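Ticket #4471: structure export looks truncated?
Reporter: QA, pipeline team
Priority: medium

Steps to reproduce: submit the single chain below to the structure queue and open the exported record.
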Amino acid sequence: MKRLMIAVLMNAVVGVSSLLAADSLIGTWKTVDEKTGKVQSDVELYDQGGKLFGKITRLTEPNRADGKPKICTKCQGADKDQPVVGLVILKNMSASGDRYKGGTITDPEDGKVYKAEIWSEDGKLKVRGYLGPFYRTQTWVKGN
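Actual output as written to the record:
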């Protein structure tokens, strides 16, 4: 009985820490160009059905040269030809320890979809996209 109680308490602690981790990630994050250091977009992270998702809510340059809103011409499926502002780029991320994994991230510039992993580090968000054994990690900063 004592072991059962300890197991139940440990599961409760792990569950609460996962919820707290999700709460700290939920909100607006700014994507930053690695070369220029300039903010490119705002992405709102939100919980949907116990999983983490992220939607582009603002672009620093929202329009194409012709003045029309940027659209995801290279995206596939339901995202094809959709406006980039409003596009859900981070999908189905599940808590796994201190990170979120198991979901995907879409690059609206080339339409490619990558396996994703995200975590908080020093008050910033690390966003990693995988293509096989290779990966690239971006650092996003907390927005307003």
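Status: closed, not a bug. The export was complete when the record was re-opened. Leaving a note from the reviewer for reference: The chain has a mean pLDDT of 88.
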